[in-house]
Amino acid sequence: MGCVTAVPVPSPRSEAPLPGRAGRLSLAVALLAGALGAAVALLATRQRWSEGTATVAGGAFPLTASGSDVTGVPAALAIVGLAALVAVFAVRRSGRLLVAALLALSGAGTIAAAVLGASDSSALDEKAAQASGDTAATVNTLSHTAWPYAAAVGGALILLAGLLALRYGRLWPAMSGRYERGGAPRPRRRAPADPERPEEIWKALDRGEDPTGA
Q1: Which residue has the higher pLDDT, 125 or 195?
Q2: 72 lies in a domain?
Q3: Helix/strand/coil for 185
Q4: Which domain holds residue 66?
Q5: pTM here?
Q6: Average pLDDT, the chain
Q7: DSSP 6-74
Q8: What are the residues whose beta carbons fall under 8 Å from the beta carbon of 88, sequence distance 6 or more?
Q9: How many CA atoms lie within 13 Å of 31's alpha carbon, on the beta-carbon side?
Q10: Phi–psi pair at 85, nearest 5 degrees
Q11: Which of 32, 61, 80, 183 has its CA 20 to 30 A from that of 166?
Q12: 57: Cα separation from own chain's centroid
């Protein structure tokens, strides 16, 4: 009798679900981080970033500057990042990588602008000059709040979403491909006609064909 060699049975573990789980988890985290980061950055830019006083008529005149007074970059980049987060699902392959890179750059730019604005005094100096009528006037007793750093945290969340899109974006779903690039819906495939149906037989007779196929 010949010797029968046992064929090794492959392990029942499947690696296919792993990319699926990684894709779903990264997608959920990216959506949450991107949306939350944009909301935090936009909210932070509307808050008070710095405050001080200006000398007006021999007295101290209080001044405040919001994030939008200091710089409009964080708010603008937060909106760009939010748009890029949505656009990630409208493109595929290299286009998705480019949009993901834009998303990450929006987050990085938001962080940089917020950190630079945390110590900026130009907005209050301008208000001090307007309040005193002296173009050389500057703000006194300058202080800053924590809101610029809150905007930086929002930028960090947007950056995280962009990095996740760069790493796992290929596993994420895309918008339905039912529509062509021109915007017109693709024609639906019609089921083949049943030659046994009476109306098909009459149509064949009208065309001069033999419906029996003889």
Answers
A1: 125
A2: yes
A3: strand
A4: 28-173
A5: 0.70
A6: 80
A7: PPPPPPS--STHHHHHHHHHHHHHHHHHHHHHHHHHHHHHTSEEEEEEEEETTEEEEEEEEHHHH-SHH
A8: 96, 99, 100, 103, 165, 169, 172
A9: 11
A10: -60, -40
A11: 183
A12: 50
